[in-house]
Amino acid sequence: MANRKRTIDEKVGAVQIALGQINIEKAAREAGVPANTLRYDLDKVKQFLADVLKNRPPGPKPRSLFPPDGSTSD
Fold this sequence. Notes:
The chain is mainly α and 74 residues long. It has helices at 8-20, 24-31, 35-47, 49-53.
């Protein structure tokens, strides 16, 4: 199914399944971190999947007309 637009729910669901199949204990041993730490970090990643996976227009982000400090270039 090339070039088929997927909904955010489809994308998030697929990635959640993949993350759920990770052997956390083995991955934690390889990374040298406690399994609970890795599990906690993966839970944080799962919370933001929808934002990470949403489609964004290609190219650079539009620049603001005004610099963040509020001054103008005049």
